[in-house]
Amino acid sequence: MSLLTLLATALVVSAAPVVEKRQAPSGVPDYVVKYAPVVYLFSGEAYFPADIGAQVTNTAPAINRTLVQNPPAVDLSNLDQLNNIPNSAHGANIYLTSNQDPTTSPRPQYLYGTKPDPTGKTPSAISCAIITVSHTNTTLDAFFFYFYAFNFGGVYFTLEVGDHIGDWEHNMVRFENGTPSQIWYSQHSGGQAFDYAATEKHDSVRPVTYSANGTHANYATPGTHDHTIPGVNLPAGPIEDHTDAGFLWDPTLSAYFYSFDPASSSFTPYGDAPAPGWLNFNGKWGDDKIPESDSRQDCTFGIDALCQYQAGPTGPKDKDLNRTNVCPDGKDCPVYPVLLPRSDVA
Ligand SMILES: *[C@@H]1O[C@H](CO)[C@@H](O)[C@H](O)[C@H]1NC(C)=O
Ligand SMILES: *[C@@H]1O[C@H](CO)[C@@H](O)[C@H](O)[C@H]1NC(C)=O
Ligand SMILES: *[C@@H]1O[C@H](CO)[C@@H](O)[C@H](O)[C@H]1NC(C)=O
Ligand SMILES: *[C@@H]1O[C@H](CO)[C@@H](O)[C@H](O)[C@H]1NC(C)=O
Fold first, then answer.
1. 292 to 110, 159, 240, 306: CA distances (angstroms)
2. Cα dihedral: 240, 115, 269, 184 (round 10)
3. How far away, in angstroms, is 230 Cα from ligand 1 center?
4. Protein residue whose Cα sits closest to atom 2 of ligand 4
5. In terms of domain of life, where is this protein from (predicted)?
6. pLDDT, tens digit, for every residue of 14-61?
7. How far apart are the CA of 148 and the centre of ligand 1, in A?
8. pTM (two decimals)
9. Which residues' Cβ are closer than 6 Å to ligand 3?
10. Closest C-alpha residue for ligand 3 atom 3
11. Cβ distance 3 to 9 under 8 Å?
């Protein structure tokens, strides 16, 4: 995309409606909400942000695709009780498994999430967790975790690959002395980092993030983004993510707020957020992979990573909350001073 096109798009986007006044519970630094990202969902999106608690009420714990017998009654506040289930590897082997067949057409309603209203709010759905991590007196990281109940992977030739139930994505804004300095955009198993100053702004201060159709990978620019499936050498052709300024979602309008203390590895709620049992749950937020022997599964060329249905993901605590750089630890972390489409910087 040319610079002119980018600029033109930025101008159109900045004319978006003004969102309702945001409020953060007491104790959350004002700047965390002031500089919170605004998300643009794709105009053709079918799988909207979803209520985090509904993922618990619509599922039951299973291990190795077998339901756990007489599991404890759990909600968000005590979901970590599932970590105590015997032979679950402290919960790590547990998959929150849909009570209804998730592969039907249409799929069970809860998997489609909640479309934001004209103010950018997802009515009756709390689909975001904002987690602050203070590193020093002067550096604070604010994580914005976005939850979607279903990830539509993409189309490879004519076949769908990489669908899964439960989808956690995030931005992280690093603040120095209350001033935003850098921002991370999660994209599949990686992502991109930019100087805050480089990002497109909504209402002149809030960075814009474009959520890709179906996969919900976060990009700093609209358009088409190539991505390959991690760890797979594709026999041919890219799989593309598509982003545009389809629906404005302001994740701060319905979010739970927490702080995370790396030294004690503990979460503390701000305001009336539920107790953090769900953040301490070690398991997965969606069904396990459907076996290849199951007629509902379809694996392109018989390649494992190219199956239509993949396993659900772990939650926010697996996303390097105590990271050194703005990128997750263990990744090269170029922080770009200008916006470039991913294909130009990868
Ligand atoms: C967007 O995702 C839907 C599935 O939710 C898919 O049917 C549609 O083709 C996708 N659109 C584009 C432009 O990729
Ligand atoms: C999972 O179930 C399959 C089929 O019943 C079995 O072969 C396999 O050993 C089980 N795996 C574990 C880790 O229990
Ligand atoms: C640390 O924070 C306190 C309270 O906000 C402030 O008074 C102090 O100057 C800060 N110290 C440094 C080194 O920034
Ligand atoms: C958090 O990260 C810092 C900086 O990398 C490191 O010094 C510290 O040991 C980490 N804390 C924990 C509890 O891992």
1. 25, 15, 25, 11
2. 20
3. 21
4. 322
5. Eukaryota
6. 444 444 457 789 999 999 999 999 999 999 999 999 999 999 999 999
7. 16
8. 0.90
9. 137-138
10. 137
11. no
